[in-house]
Amino acid sequence: MSFFEIQGSTPLSGQVRIHGSKNAVLPMMAATILHRGTTILTNVPRILDVFWMIGILKTLGCQVWFEEDVLTIDASVVTSTIIPQYLAEKMRSSIIFLGPLLGRCNKASLWYPGGCSIGSRPIDLHAEVLRAMGAKIQEDGEHLDVTAETLSGCTFSFRFASVGATENAIMCAVNANGKTVLNNVAREPEIRDLCRMLVKMGAKIDGIGSSKLVIEGNSQLHNSSFRVPPDRIVAATYLSAVTVCGGRIQLCEVPVYDLRAVLAVLQKCGCRFRKRKSGLDVWCYQRPWAVPYTKTQVYPGFPTDVQSLLMTVLSKAEGVSVIEETIFEARFHTALQLQRMGADIQINHSYAQIRGVVSLHGADVTAMDLRGGAALTIAGVSAEGKTIVRAVEHVFRGYESLERDLAAMGANIVLKQ
Ligand code: EPZ
C-alpha cells in the first residue's frame, strides 16, 4: 500500500494548473456509447477512475486511445452489455453506464457499484427514473439486470436531486422515443457539462443548468470533440490548503463561478483571492477564523465533497465551528484521523463541532475515502512534524498527483510504496 510522507509545517507558494474534472469526465465517457461513432475528449485527467472507465468501455467492445490528455473513444461497435464485477466495484461511476447502455442496446447487466464508503449509496432513484421510461430492472441484492422493449419519453420528478440518477436519466432520454421532461434534477456543474457535450454531439436538451430539463429523444448523434472543464473539487483542495497552511499561490484554470459557495466560506476563514485571466491569486497570512455554521447542500450550496477539506481548515481555526453534513450519512470518518493529529472534533449524528487548536502535530493516519485522503494530506502539510498518510490509493482515484502539486507549492511531501 502506498503512502505519503510529509514534513510540516510549510506555508505554500507557487503555481499549479487545475486538471480536468473527474466527476465531469466519467459520465462523458459513458455517454460516448450513445453514438455509433467517435468522440474525442480533451483535458482528460490521468486519474485511476478514468483508467477503470476505459477498462469498462473496452469490455463493452469500444476502441479507446489515451495519449497525454486526449481520450479518443470509438463506440461504432458495442459487443457486450455486461459490466464485470471487478470493474463495477472499483467506483461509483460504473452505475452511469445504465442509461447509455439502455439507450444504445436496450439492456445492461452490472454488479452494484463501488466508490467511496461515505454512506449506503442506494440506487433506487436511478431505478425509478429508468422504470418510468420503460425499463424492467431485476435485482438480487448485488447485481442488476436491466432490459427495455422500447424506451419512451416521460415526465418525471426526482424526489431528491441525485447527481448520478440525473445523469442516467439524461443519457437514457437522449435515445428514448419522444420527449422527456425531468423535474428537480441535480444542477451540479458536471450535469451542465454533460448536457453541453451531448448537445455538441447532436442531442436536443433545453433548460441546461436549471432544475428542469426537456429532452427530445431519438437524436441523430454525430462525431464530435469536447474539452473537459477543470475540476472544482481539486481547486477547492488547494484553496483549502493555502487557507490552513498559510502563504500565497496562483491557481490556473479555476472554475470560479462554480466555486462561489466554497470561496464564500473560505473568505469567512480569512482566505483572500484576486481573479487572474483564467485563474486565481490566493493568499492567507493569518490563523484561519472559525465559521459558526456550514451546511453541505446540493449545488449551488456548499458541496459535500469539500466537507472534509473544510474540517481540516477549521481544525486550526480560532474559535468553534459547526459543519452539518446533509448529503451522505457517513462522511465524517476523516474526523477520527484528524483527532490523531490533535484536532478537537466532536461528532453528533450529522453534526461535527470543531474547536480549533493553534497547531496540529504529525501522526500516522489512514485515508478512508478520496476527499478524506486529500484532507489528511493538507492537514499533514500544515502540521508540526512528520505525518504518514496511508491508503493513498483512494487519492489516486481523483487527483493526477496531489503530492506533485503540493510539492510545486513548496510542501515537503513524497510518495512511498
Ligand atoms: C456524485 O455521486 C459524485 N460522484 C460524488 O463525488 C458527490 O459527492 C455526489 O455526486 C454529490 O454531489 C461522481 O460524480 C462520480 P448522488 P452520486 O446520487 O451520483 C442518495 C467524489 O468525492 N441517493 O447525488 O453517487 C445517496 O445515498 C464523489 O468525487 C439515493 O438515496 O451522488 C446520497 O446520500 C464522492 N438513491 C445522496 O443521494 C439513489 O438512487 C447524493 O447522492 C442515488 C443517490
UniProtKB/TrEMBL annotation:
Subcellular location: Cytoplasm
UniProt superkingdom: Bacteria
Residue positions binding phosphoenolpyruvate: K22, N23
This protein's pathway: Cell wall biogenesis; peptidoglycan biosynthesis
One GO cellular component, as annotated: cytoplasm
Active-site positions on this chain: C116 (proton donor)
Molecular function GO terms recorded: UDP-N-acetylglucosamine 1-carboxyvinyltransferase activity
Main location per the UniProt record: cytoplasm
Keywords from the UniProt entry: Cell cycle, Cell division, Cell shape, Cell wall biogenesis/degradation, Cytoplasm, Peptidoglycan synthesis, Pyruvate, Transferase
Known EC number: 2.5.1.7
Family: Belongs to the EPSP synthase family. MurA subfamily.
Function field: Cell wall formation. Adds enolpyruvyl to UDP-N-acetylglucosamine.
Protein name: UDP-N-acetylglucosamine 1-carboxyvinyltransferase
Organism field: Candidatus Fimimorpha faecalis
Lineage, top ranks: Bacteria, Bacillati, Bacillota, Clostridia, Eubacteriales
